[in-house]
Amino acid sequence: YLRSRPDAARIRIFDDLTAWHRDAIPYDLVLTRNCVHHFRGLGPIAAAVREKLAPAGRWLMLREWYAERPLEVYELLREHPYAFKYGLYEFPHSVARYVDAVEGVGFALAAVVPAHYANGALGDCATTAGGWPIRAATGLLDQALVRAPWLTVLAHRLERPFRRLLPARLRFFSRPQALFFRRVPVPGWDQAP
Known about the structure:
Strand content: 15-25%
Oligomer: single chain
Helix content: 25-40%
Number of helices: 6
């Protein structure tokens, strides 16, 4: 779809991992949507993404597949239309596992877009703005994401220890629609500019 849009001509789309690795251009932003849970190793994939980013690059991870408890993992796998039927690798991870794996290879969590933001527009592809409570919360979150994104990271870290105790509908920052990471220097590895 994006390839057909004239306003997206500058967007580079890769569906071949070898071609992506061979491409020498460093990227300012890598956007992944509903795909990181398909890779067998979160750390190696995060390291590969980091190597493709410019020194100030960002990674926007949208709509990943989350599970906080063992039973939730197996229920999600059983319900998935392709995991067992076709033997595809599908695996839901806890949000903590995604964050820890990505931060562990040279990223910092820069912002968290919580569940229910904009009525689920990023995670559930909702097309309506939702009722006044959702619209009001979205307005406040817009301000936080622009002016103080660290507040969303703090909210994530504060909610994180309680994520297994909360029902899914009450996990906002620990069950986000999007995680936004920034590349950070790794002393001894990254070359000086």
